[in-house]
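> call design_seq(struct)
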């Protein structure tokens, strides 16, 4: 099942980058919780509960940064968890300022759906949180 989770995350990322938010969010459980990193570029909640809040947060980013997209640098299989190292980039609609955010996210899967996402400051912290540290 772990390879399925890795493949599903890749497909979700491709759908997001193609502008298909509905298809990108198909992977998420309706009651999923996402813990954002404090101090994000937009005034979005640090804890997003359920698909409506997750969708609203992503929509606000795409609205403010029309070219907002994600590149996955690495996916690490951790059983029912996947560590995703990715970079988000975009250019501000009004300001013209560029953002370049690196994130380490631990996604938890149940029944082939993401039930939780937690952002960590770096790869080592994410690996430790997923039980893969040395």
């Amino acid at each position: 099942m772990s390879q399925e989770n890795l493949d599903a995350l890749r497909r979700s990322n491709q759908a997001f980058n193609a502008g298909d938010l509905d298809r990108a969010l198909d992977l998420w459980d309706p009651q999923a919780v996402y813990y954002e990193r404090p101090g994000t570029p937009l005034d979005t909640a640090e804890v997003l509960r359920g698909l409506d809040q997750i969708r609203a947060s992503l929509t606000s980013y795409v609205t403010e940064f029309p070219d907002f997209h994600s590149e996955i640098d690495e996916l690490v299989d951790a059983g029912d968890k996947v560590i995703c190292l990715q970079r988000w980039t975009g250019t501000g609609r009004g300001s013209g300022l560029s953002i370049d955010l690196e994130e380490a996210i631990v996604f938890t899967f149940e029944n082939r759906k993401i039930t939780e996402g937690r952002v960590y400051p770096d790869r080592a912290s994410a690996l430790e949180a997923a039980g893969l540290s040395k």
